[in-house]
Specification:
heterodimer, A: alpha+beta, 4-stranded antiparallel β-sheet, globular, B: 639 residues, alpha/beta, 8-stranded mixed β-barrel, 21 strands
Chain lengths: 184, 639
């Protein structure tokens, strides 16, 4: 997993819980990398899981809440770090549909070794679609957060609801996205 | 208390926390630098590799560009060459007169040159359509074209044939068609390429030449060659089918006179008239041919019976004898037809034509040159055979000198003295009798043997006269001369030679000629000049059988004729009819008025003699006086 993810996580933790918590989280996680991350590096995603679990323990915050918040925070950071991804005047649904077919493709060009999740869609109508998320990493909740972050980015343009939550897992989940502002 | 064991609010703990953070960030920075350095190096290597690839690509592009440029140049050169070849081909095709076409046997696409369309007289689209649907070609030979086009997928043999095709203006045109099938290496037919050559003029000229070689130029009917060819075919077909057919030979009687009197233009017009009318009667079922001169021949096919043939002959005679108008003058001809029938009268060309010819001549003689037709019969053949045999006998007799002369005395009835003799040829038979002259003289004249016979008569007559003369006997001998002998023009020289040979004065010889000499020579040119020469030799000239010919009497004062011999037929009629006596009387008066001497022939009775004496006829001969006698008997008579 790219170092940028880890750096943003540490920054979010520091920003949300303070340097001490972040430091404690890092020191107590006994990470192989020693918590030393650079944005251009690549590290084992397990370290992130370890840190999130430790953070949950330290802050007594439920893990899903942390992951959700992280995902939401991560979206805007990703948008800032990959400026060419968003096309002008692109509708939110169009953007989401382009994630797998264009954005992930561009990411793979930059980071050939990246293990990106796969996304598929069921278009119900112009205002509704179901997004299926599948990943080799247990970051379904992070994905939920990213979608929330995306909605915020588009001025709360759509709502995100988990579909068939009983069938959802950390690696696989479906979301129903509904426009809050109808297409004219 | 934190996991690290310190109090987070403790300033020293905070410092430691910050220290750890700084250390981590430094380490992260170093890590980043190392990664960047590594990435830079990797980038540099990638860049190098890229540069090398680019260089190789550039080289390859350069090579490919050079190759492409060369290929383009070659292609352009090839295209220019192809264009030149195509232009040359188009010029050659245009100059050659060939209409070129090509059919792709796989796709059925057709190329048709503009020249071909022009040759056919259709639009290119129409020509292409007809090439595709070649069964639309119509005309003689188009069936063969269809057959050949239909076989192109099977046969490798080039197409090479002449055919007649109906072209755009509806006329039939001759073309030569050449075509060849192109196949691939597996023998699969790919294309049929060919050309049509316009050979219409060539064929027309060839057909014209062939027509001219087999047809008479003047009358346009078949010539002898085509007649023989058609007759040969008729014989063959009739042999197989057991059918009858007839051959007719036709001769125009007195055609020479037409030419002489009215000119050759009139004669040609008459020939065309005869040919056209024959053709109109015979139609397409038979053949009409001009064999030459005024001789025509007809082959009649599809005949049912003799009556059918007879009707056809009657029609031919009726139509051909109708007069024509030439320079406002009506001219007509008499025509004689002789007919032979296959297989009865012959099974080959020679016999069929010979028998038809015989029948024609037989009919002509029997009809006295009037128009008519005659069917061949065994009797005619027998007569012809007899005539041929007699001619052979005459020749043999001449060679063996079998002939003799007997002499009939002529008497001066005033003095009752013999004043001369008429030589009469005798042909002794084995039994002692004689073949009458009328039985062989016509054959001798017909065959031309008369010249030899006459030469012998002249020589023998001169010899005999010379012998009597040497014995002191002046017995002039009158020799009968055939009109045929005047045609040769050498009669005076024959007499001259004989007189010289026998040392005989010309006055001891006379000649007797009939009026027919003048019928044949109406201008009297040839006959007149010879008679004058003969007269100058001292030879007396008599007109024999006077009154029986058909010529005008102008020759009597134009020619050196001394004696007129009244024909025996008139003498016989003296006491039979008043007209008979009147005729003889007129002849006597005419002769005297012209200063001619008269001899009456065939005097049989004393009454006849007395009548002639009363009319002052000078001389006479006949059985009353004496028949023709041998030289020995003449001597006895004189002595």
């Amino acid at each position: 997993m790219k170092g940028m993810i880890f750096c943003e996580f540490l920054e979010m933790v520091e920003g949300s819980f303070g340097l001490a918590v972040m430091d404690e989280m890092v020191e107590s996680s006994e990470l192989p990398s020693g918590g030393i991350y650079t944005a251009v590096g690549t590290y084992d995603h397990q370290e992130l899981i370890t840190m999130v679990i430790r953070l949950s323990q330290i802050t007594e915050t439920p893990l899903p809440e942390l992951l959700l918040a992280y995902g939401q925070n991560l979206f805007s950071k990703l948008m800032d770090s990959l400026p060419g991804l968003l096309q002008d005047n692109q509708d939110c649904f169009e953007f989401i549909k382009n994630i797998d077919s264009h954005i992930h493709v561009e990411v793979e060009k930059l980071y050939p070794e990246a293990e990106l999740p796969s996304l598929s869609f069921d278009i119900i109508d112009d205002d509704n679609m179901v997004l299926h998320y599948q990943s080799c990493r247990p970051f379904a909740t992070v994905a939920h957060g990213l979608l929330l972050g995306c909605s915020v980015y588009y001025d709360n343009g759509f709502s995100v609801n988990v579909v068939n939550s009983d069938q959802a897992s950390d690696n696989e989940i479906s979301f129903r996205l509904t426009r809050t502002v109808a297409v004219v | 208390m934190s996991e690290t064991g310190g109090d987070a609010n403790d300033p020293s703990e905070e410092v430691l926390t910050l220290k750890r953070q700084v250390l981590r960030q430094k380490a992260a920075r170093k890590q980043a630098e190392s990664i960047l350095e590594q990435k830079s190096y990797e980038l540099y290597q990638v860049n190098q590799t890229l540069q090398e690839s680019i260089a190789r690509l550039d080289q390859r592009v350069e090579d490919r560009t050079a190759a492409l440029t060369a290929a383009i140049d070659r292609s352009e050169e090839g295209a220019r060459k192809l264009e030149r070849v195509n232009e040359r081909f188009a010029r050659v095709a245009e100059a050659s007169g060939a209409g070129i076409w090509e059919i792709n046997l796989q796709t059925k696409e057709i190329y048709c040159s503009p020249k071909l369309a022009r040759i056919f007289g259709f639009s290119i689209a129409e020509t292409t359509y007809r090439l595709k649907n070649y069964h639309l070609f119509k005309g003689a030979g188009s069936e063969e074209v269809n057959k050949q086009f239909g076989r192109v997928n099977i046969s490798s043999t080039p197409i090479d044939l002449e055919c007649q095709i109906v072209v755009g203006d509806g006329s039939s045109h001759w073309f030569k068609l050449n075509a060849l099938t192109h196949k691939d290496n597996n023998g699969k037919p790919l294309r049929l390429t060919g050309a049509f050559f316009d050979i219409n003029e060539t064929v027309k000229n060839r057909l014209l030449v062939e027509h001219m070689a087999t047809h008479d130029t003047l009358t346009k009917v078949a010539n002898r060659a085509l007649f023989n060819e058609n007759l040969e075919r008729a014989i063959k077909e009739s042999r197989e089918s057991n059918e009858l057919f007839c051959v007719a030979i036709a001769d125009l009687n007195s055609f020479k006179e037409i030419n002489d009197n009215y000119g050759h233009v009139a004669g040609d017009q008459l020939l065309r008239h005869v040919a056209n009318n024959m053709q109109s009667v015979v139609g397409n079922t038979g053949t009409v041919a001009r064999l030459g001169g005024d001789e025509f021949a007809v082959i009649l096919r599809d005949i049912k019976n003799a009556e059918n043939v007879r009707k056809i002959c009657e029609k031919i005679v009726a139509r051909c004898t109708k007069p024509i108008l030439h320079d406002d003058v009506e001219i007509s001809i008499h025509i004689s037809l002789g007919v032979s029938t296959y297989p009865t009268d012959g099974r080959n060309i020679f016999n069929l034509t010979r028998h038809a010819d015989l029948a024609m001549y037989h009919g002509k003689r029997a009809g006295n040159n009037e128009s008519g037709f005659c069917f061949f019969s065994p009797e005619i053949d027998a007569k012809d055979r007899a005539a041929r045999e007699i001619k052979v006998d005459i020749r043999r007799a001449i060679e063996r000198q079998d002939f003799i002369l007997h002499y009939q005395p002529k008497y001066n009835i005033l003095t009752s003295r013999m004043e001369g003799v008429e030589a009469l040829i005798r042909w002794p038979r084995v039994d002692g009798s004689f073949t009458p002259p009328e039985e062989f003289i016509p054959h001798a004249e017909e065959s031309g043997l008369i010249n030899e016979l006459s030469a012998w008569i002249i020589d023998e007559g001169c010899r005999q006269a010379a012998e009597w003369h040497r014995q002191g006997l002046a017995i002039p001998i009158a020799l009968n001369i055939s009109p045929v002998q005047f045609a040769n023009g050498d009669l005076p020289y024959i007499f001259q030679a004989a007189l010289r040979h026998h040392s005989l004065p010309g006055e001891m010889i006379g000649i007797e000629i009939t009026e027919n000499c003048f019928i044949e020579d109406e201008n009297l040119g040839q006959t007149s000049s010879q008679l004058k020469i003969l007269n100058e030799l001292g030879i007396e000239i008599s007109i024999d059988d006077f009154g029986t010919g058909y010529s005008s009497l102008s020759y009597l004062h134009q020619l050196p004729i001394q004696v007129i011999k009244i024909d025996r037929s008139f003498v016989t009629q003296l006491f039979v009819s008043a007209e008979g006596a009147a005729i003889v009387d007129s002849i006597i008066k005419l002769s005297h008025a012209l200063g001619k001497t008269l001899v009456a022939e065939g005097v049989e009775t004393e009454e006849q003699l007395a009548w002639l004496l009363e009319k002052k006829c000078e001389s006479a001969q006949g059985n009353y006086f004496s028949p023709a006698l041998s030289p020995v008997k003449i001597l006895e008579l004189v002595q």
